[in-house]
Amino acid sequence: MSLSIESVSNFGQLFDNSSTQKVMEQENSFANILSDSINETKQAEAVDDASNIDLMSGTEDSLQSAMIDAQKAELTLQLTVQIRNKILDSYNEIMSMQV
C-alpha cells in the first residue's frame, strides 16, 4: 500500500488576494463617504454664512431662506457628528476584540 504525494504547484491560489482587494475597496469607499460628508458640511456652512451676510447687508430680504440655510447647515453638521460617533464606536469595539 503506497501513497503518492503530489507537489503543491498552485500554493499561491490558496491565499486569494481578492478578499484583500475587497477590503481595500471598502476602505476607500468608506473614506470617500466620510470625506464627502465633511465637504457637504463645509459647503452648507459656507452657504449659511453667505446667506447671513446677504441678510445683514440688506442684499437679501428673505429671512426664511436664511433660516432654511441655517437649518441645512445644522443638520449636515449633526449628520457628520453622528457619522464620527459611529466610527469611534466601531473602532472601540474592534479594539476591544480579543484575537
Mean pLDDT level: 80
Topology pattern, helix = H, strand = E: HH
Beta percentage is: under 5%
How can the largest sheet be summarized? Answer: none
Helix count? 2
User: What structural category arises from helix and sheet content?
Assistant: mainly alpha
Unreliable parts: none
Q: How helix-rich are the residues, as a percent range? A: over 70%
What keywords describe this structure?
99 residues; mainly alpha; 2 helices
Summarize the entry for a quick read.
By secondary structure, this protein is an all-alpha fold. It is built from 2 helices and no strands.
Describe the protein's architecture and organization.
This protein has 99 residues and is mainly alpha-helical. Helices cover 75% and strands 0% of the residues. It has helices at residues 18-57, 63-96. Helix 1 (18-57) runs antiparallel to helix 2 (63-96).
